[in-house]
């Protein structure tokens, strides 16, 4: 069967985005707003978004950065050891908050104020279970004795499985999964557990980070894993199964912050995210499953209607910009300078 030269799907959403704040927000938000109707906005600003009031103020700044684009930011609260369950519930009830994010303290960028031990937020989790507020988890343990490539698999055994056992009604999104055990775990758990998958984890493995030298722009957390895991993620994403949905984890850091003796974790994928997913689905002979992954499964998980309008992607070779300027510095997009084979029309 030959593959089509264009595909029209219901307009997609991005269920995991870092838009930052200030000057970077103004530069990166339009990339997301151009492709996606809605996005889950991560709260790990350098001063994290921990309360409903913070989320409301940040939402205003995001909307301002998107100008006239038809785009809805869905806000999240950053959980800390002292999160107030009542503030969270009030924010969820009045629509300011869509979900809350668990960063184990020290797991990733700006996670220093994260949760030091999940037992500390038991009352918060009980409240979230009661009101069906999704808990989004950065699924890696932080124990320095656990090898960095094993931190996701160990998180499943030590944290996630016990959490789901204690709270069978809790809705959880296992964010940016990177391993075959995570794919298997999500499949085995059922509809209360969803998972986002990034474009870069579908496209690179851990060897790519060291191809010809160290490649700081391919470093993110959770770090890319072996090839067998990349293949398991491709199979899961293109399966059409309801638990797996699009979440780019676009995470811009300036060139100065990435190309450093201690470079930041995060891959800036938003300039070509939807096109890269489309390329992967095409390579897998699964363009017919793109709409489920990009536009239907996530909305259904969050209890939202899919978007009414559509987008069209065309088979067309183009070059992803090598850099995007921010003041005196720049951002380097994922696949920047490379030719890719699908383009969003219009
Ligand atoms: C993210 C960031 O830079 O905020 N970095 C990353 O490598 N993905 C944080 C995160 O999602 O872990
Ligand atoms: Zn992220």
Q: What's the gist of this structure?
A:
The protein is built from 11 helices and 13 strands.
Q: Can you walk me through this structure?
A:
- This protein has one domain (6-344): TIM Barrel.
- It has eleven helices and 13 strands.
- The protein has helices at residues 22-35, 52-66, 85-93, 122-131, 151-166, 180-189, 199-203, 227-237, 255-258, 273-283, 290-302; strands at 6-10, 14-17, 38-41, 72-78, 97-102, 135-137, 172-174, 193-197, 244-246, 310-319, 324-326, 329-331, 339-344.
- The strands form three sheets. The protein has an eight-stranded parallel sheet.
- Helix 3 (85-93) packs parallel to helix 4 (122-131).
- Zinc ion binds next to loops.
Rg measurement, Å: 19 Å
SSE pattern, N- to C-terminal:
EEHEHEHEHEHEHEHHEHHHEEEE
Structural class: alpha/beta
| Tally of domains | 1
Oligomeric state of the chains present here:
single chain
Secondary structure: number of strands: 13
Keywords for this entry:
34% helix, 11 helices, globular, binds N-carbamoyl-L-aspartate, single chain, three-stranded antiparallel sheet, eight-stranded parallel sheet, alpha/beta, binds zinc ion, TIM Barrel, 346 residues
């Amino acid at each position: 069967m030959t593959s089509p030269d264009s595909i029209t799907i219901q307009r997609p959403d991005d269920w995991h985005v870092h838009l930052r704040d200030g000057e970077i927000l103004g530069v990166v938000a339009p990339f997301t707003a151009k492709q996606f109707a809605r996005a889950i906005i991560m709260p790990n600003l350098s001063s994290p978004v921990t309360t409903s009031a913070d989320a409301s103020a940040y939402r205003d700044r995001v909307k301002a950065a998107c100008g006239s684009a038809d785009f809805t930011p869905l806000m999240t609260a950053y959980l800390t050891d002292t999160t107030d369950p009542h503030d969270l519930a009030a924010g969820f009830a009045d629509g300011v908050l869509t979900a809350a994010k668990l960063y184990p303290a020290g797991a990733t960028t700006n996670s220093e104020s994260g949760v030091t031990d999940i037992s500390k937020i038991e009352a918060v989790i009980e409240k979230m279970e009661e009101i069906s507020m999704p808990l989004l988890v950065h699924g890696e343990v932080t124990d320095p004795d656990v090898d960095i490539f094993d931190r996701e698999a160990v998180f499943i055994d030590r944290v996630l499985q016990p959490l789901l056992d204690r709270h069978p009604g809790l809705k959880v999104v296992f964010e940016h999964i990177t391993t075959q055990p995570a794919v298997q775990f999500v499949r085995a758990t059922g509809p209360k557990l969803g998972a986002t998958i990034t474009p870069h984890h579908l496209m690179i493995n851990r060897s790519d980070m060291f191809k010809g030298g160290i490649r700081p722009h391919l470093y993110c957390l959770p770090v890319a894993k072996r090839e067998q895991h990349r293949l398991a993620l491709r199979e899961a994403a293109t399966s059409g199964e309801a638990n797996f949905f699009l979440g780019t984890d676009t995470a811009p850091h300036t060139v100065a912050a990435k190309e450093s003796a201690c470079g930041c974790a995060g891959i800036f994928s938003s300039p070509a995210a939807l096109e890269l997913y489309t390329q992967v689905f095409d390579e897998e002979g699964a363009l017919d499953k793109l709409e489920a992954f990009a536009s239907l499964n996530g909305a259904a998980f969050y209890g939202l209607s899919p978007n009414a309008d559509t987008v069209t992607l065309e088979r067309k070779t183009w070059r992803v910009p090598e850099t995007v300027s921010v003041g005196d510095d720049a951002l380097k997009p994922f696949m920047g300078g490379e030719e890719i084979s699908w383009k969003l029309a219009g």
